[in-house]
Amino acid sequence: MNKKIILIAICTLLCLSILSGCNVKYNAVMYSRVEEWIDEDFLRENRVKAYYLNDDYVEDDDSDEPPEEYIYDKNSPSSRSFIITEENQFKNIFTACPISVDFDKEMVLLHIFGDMYPYREYYLKKTALEDKTLKIYYKLEYSNKKDATMPFQRCMMVKLDRLDISDVNFIEK
């Protein structure tokens, strides 16, 4: 009798774990930190609300009011998202990407946003397709450490099956 109960419990747990992973569809895989894979000019042209190194900053400037080392870009949007379906578009944006993409079968989504947690990862929680809009739900890794910094430009990438979409929304849960 005890063996049957244990077997049923194991089967139940197995089924629940399989069903809980079904929210991520389309073979979607998230890469949480891809800033270094992206062309610097592209990042500069697609700034978001965050702090950036000041190009006018000179260390040991003796002027009355030296420029700040970092400046906050308050005029840019809080985030930007891109749907990348063509290899040439991908190569223009991603100059050092170690991930291969078969654009006949796959596509890439890029999300740029202001983040304050440089040492934590983001995880893909769920994907949902409604009409021609794909919703990507993601979550920040939990930590009880006080590790926040001033907002910086962060990029995450999702590689997934090629879909017929016209818009993508990244939603933090």
Describe the structure.
With 173 residues, the protein is of the alpha+beta class. 18% of the residues lie in helices and 34% in strands. The strands form 3 sheets. A 4-stranded antiparallel beta sheet has the order 1-8-5-4, covered by helices on one side. Strand 6 (122-130) and strand 7 (133-140) form a beta hairpin. The longest helix has 19 residues, at 2-20. Residues 11-21 have low confidence and may be disordered.
Span of the ends, CA to CA: 42 Å
Strand content: 25-35%
Strand order of the largest sheet: 1-8-5-4
Number of DSSP helical runs:
3
Order of helices and strands: HEHEEEHEEEEE
In the predicted model, the low-confidence regions spanning at least 5 consecutive residues are 11-21
**Largest sheet features:** 4 strands, antiparallel
Mean pLDDT: 88
List keywords for this structure.
single chain, alpha+beta, 9 strands
A few lines on this structure:
This protein is of the alpha+beta class. It contains three helices and nine strands.
Topology:
Elements lengths: L1 H19 L8 E3 L8 H6 L5 E3 L16 E3 L6 E6 L2 H7 L12 E10 L6 E9 L2 E8 L11 E10 L5 E6 L1
Parallel strand pairs: 7-9
Antiparallel strand pairs: 1-8, 2-3, 4-5, 5-8, 6-7
